[in-house]
């Protein structure tokens, strides 16, 4: 590696697939470029340009593969990675210690920079402590409890007694502690970055104060996450309510639970309590549950929940909450009517608010949007060019893998001068209900709004052999394609294991695969992923008239 090489980007026209990117990569490397990374979707080749390598050689190499070299520009070389000295305490200071923060810290440390994470609470952030890990551990227990009493197979005698929620929560807490130690605390020593305990607040655009200590860094990443938020419902604060955090700490299953909000978090936790014996009612102001998913998915999941005993009120506005003699009353308006619903606990799952209060961002010259999220550009830079944002605090899609992606990208741009831009093409999302919702790319409505001439296929699980042998055909697959090219734009699924299946669709969307190519790809028989192949075939033929595995 030439230590004097300069980061550069070359625009390349004519690339349409990943193979194109491979050809351009090989051509640039043959001409002397180093660390080549080609993104065919954006038409850019990023590389290190060594001294002595002529621009004409790079251009000729690309032309030789049949592609069109365009503008070649040098990038900011980034911050030199010698150990910090002078007026700076660290090269990078990250405010927060969750997934985005650790991804940033690891990336910067591996590149040779000095790093400190500032955290006033517990290492690990939302995911490992109060989000993904603990909730999915309990959801799995709930699924097993429900399946033990409601399986579809003849000749099997199973049953499910009362659930000891306190024991489940204790087991969950043990798992959380182990993972927090392995995936966060132990990594601090492994990578050697500092963790400063205390509350960070910007004093001015250049200095962060942590409990009275002034810290100066060459660059900052704010990665403070988000917290559950509650709407201003009259009486709610006085009566009290559960959030996605406190619901995971209950020691006893409530007899009656009202869930306000029927998107991912509300659906997951609401169904968990349904599975372990609570009477559950979902209330949402939207016209359907899972309102950001395809309408067919929402309708099918609503049917599943109703069959399991849940009550669902959509298009419903919560007007007030008050405490009765031995219960809580929730007043809800639906259409022209009004309902008074009784419960023992209320779970509020109406969204999360970015954690930006008390950070001194105004003094730092950092702008916030109306929800309190950091306003960042497509390189994650705030209005202060030395301060970047990453993860839930930016208003990005609230998934742990997005937070980690943004943490690493922020470091690439803040320290390495990479000028990388956010790319959420084919981004997957999973709601861990039973069956699961999994989606990637654009919905039909989103694709139409983006100007595509859209065609779709919808395949019921009754046409999927895996679902038939499971005796569980509740669910479907929907694919969205560009009618002109056949390129897959989006996929949605309601099925057991949908979260695992969707990765095939993610790759297809990211790499420009058509539905015809997806249909022609091998998919193992009697797996749920075969549903994607069958749904792709549905664009051109009636799959119910095909034999098993017919191409």
CATH superfamily label of the largest domain: FAD/NAD(P)-binding domain
> By helix and strand content, what is the structural category?
alpha/beta
Q: How much strand?
A: 25-35%
The tally of helices reads: 15
Taking Cα atoms only, what radius of gyration do you get, to the nearest Å?
26 Å
Major sheet: 7 strands, mixed
Distance between the termini: 48 Å
Question: What does it look like?
Answer:
With 551 residues, this protein is of the alpha/beta class. It has 4 domains: 6-74, 2-Layer Sandwich (Alpha-Beta Plaits), CATH 3.30.70.100; 90-227 and 354-414, FAD/NAD(P)-binding domain; 236-350, FAD/NAD(P)-binding domain, CATH 3.50.50.60; 428-545, Enolase-like, domain 1, CATH 3.30.390.30. 30% of the residues lie in helices and 26% in strands. The chain is built from 15 helices and 25 strands. It has helices at 18-30, 55-64, 99-110, 125-130, 132-150, 165-191, 236-239, 264-275, 295-307, 400-414, 444-449, 465-469, 498-510, 515-519, 530-537; strands at residues 6-13, 34-39, 44-49, 68-74, 90-95, 115-119, 194-197, 200-202, 207-210, 213-222, 226-228, 256-260, 279-284, 311-314, 316-323, 328-334, 337-343, 345-348, 352-354, 387-389, 428-431, 436-441, 454-460, 476-482, 488-495. The strands form 6 sheets. Strands 5, 6, 7, 8, 9, 10 and 20 form a 7-stranded mixed beta sheet that branches. A 5-stranded antiparallel beta sheet has the order 21-22-25-24-23, sandwiched between helices. Helix 1 (18-30) crosses helix 2 (55-64) and helix 3 (99-110) packs parallel to helix 10 (400-414). The longest helix is centred in the N-terminal third of the chain and has 27 residues, at 165-191. The radius of gyration is 26 Å and the shape is globular. The two termini are 48 Å apart. The mean pLDDT is 95.
């Amino acid at each position: 590696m030439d230590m004097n090489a300069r980061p550069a980007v070359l625009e390349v026209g004519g690339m349409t697939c990943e193979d194109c990117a491979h050809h351009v990569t090989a051509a640039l490397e043959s001409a002397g470029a180093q660390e080549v990374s080609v993104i065919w979707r954006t038409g850019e080749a990023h590389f290190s340009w060594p001294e002595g390598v002529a621009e004409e050689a790079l251009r000729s190499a690309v032309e030789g593969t049949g592609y069109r070299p365009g503008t070649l520009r040098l990038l900011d070389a980034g911050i030199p990675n010698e150990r910090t000295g002078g007026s700076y305490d660290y090269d990078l200071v990250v405010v927060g210690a969750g997934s985005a923060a650790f991804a940033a810290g690891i990336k910067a440390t591996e590149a040779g920079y000095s790093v400190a994470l500032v955290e006033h609470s517990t290492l690990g952030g939302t995911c490992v402590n109060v989000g993904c890990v603990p909730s999915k551990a309990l959801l799995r227990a709930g699924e097993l409890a429900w399946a033990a009493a409601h399986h579809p197979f003849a000749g099997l005698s199973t049953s499910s007694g009362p659930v000891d929620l306190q024991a489940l929560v204790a087991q969950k807490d043990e798992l959380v502690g182990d993972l927090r130690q392995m995936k966060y605390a132990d990594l601090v020593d492994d990578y050697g970055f500092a963790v400063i305990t205390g509350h960070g607040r910007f004093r001015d655009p250049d200095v962060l104060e942590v409990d009275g200590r002034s810290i100066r860094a060459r660059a900052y990443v704010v990665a403070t996450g988000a917290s559950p938020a509650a709407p201003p419902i009259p009486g709610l604060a006085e009566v009290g309510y559960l959030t996605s955090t406190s619901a995971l700490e209950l020691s006893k299953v409530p007899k009656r639970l009202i869930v306000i909000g029927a998107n991912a978090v509300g659906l997951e936790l609401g169904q968990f309590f349904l599975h372990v014996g609570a009477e559950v009612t979902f209330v949402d102001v939207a016209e359907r549950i899972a309102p950001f998913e395809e309408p067919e998915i929402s309708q099918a999941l609503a049917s599943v929940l109703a069959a399991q005993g849940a009550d669902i009120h959509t298009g419903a506005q919560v007007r007030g909450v008050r405490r009765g003699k031995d219960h809580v009353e929730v007043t809800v308006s639906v259409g022209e009517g009004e309902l008074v619903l009784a419960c023992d606990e209320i779970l509020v799952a109406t969204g999360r608010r970015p954690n930006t209060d008390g950070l001194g961002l105004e003094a730092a010259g950092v702008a916030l949007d109306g929800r309190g999220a950091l306003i960042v550009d497509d390189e994650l830079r705030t209005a202060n060019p030395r301060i970047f944002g990453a993860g839930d605090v930016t208003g990005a899609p609230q998934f742990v893998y997005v937070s980690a992606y943004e943490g690493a990208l922020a470091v690439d741009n803040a320290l390495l001068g990479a000028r990388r831009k956010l790319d959420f093409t084919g981004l997957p999302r999973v709601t861990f209900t039973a069956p699961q919702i999994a989606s990637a790319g654009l919905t039909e409505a989103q694709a139409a709004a983006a100007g595509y001439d859209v065609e779709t296929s919808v395949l019921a699980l009754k046409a999927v052999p895996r679902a038939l042998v499971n005796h569980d055909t509740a669910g479907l697959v929907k694919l969205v394609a560009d009618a002109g090219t056949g390129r897959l734009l989006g996929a949605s699924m309601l099925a057991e294991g949908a979260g695992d299946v969707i990765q095939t669709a993610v790759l297809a969307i990211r790499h420009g695969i058509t539905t015809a190519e997806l249909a022609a790809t091998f998919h193992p028989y009697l797996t749920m992923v075969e549903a994607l192949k069958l749904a792709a075939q549905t664009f051109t033929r009636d799959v119910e008239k095909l034999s098993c595995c017919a191409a």
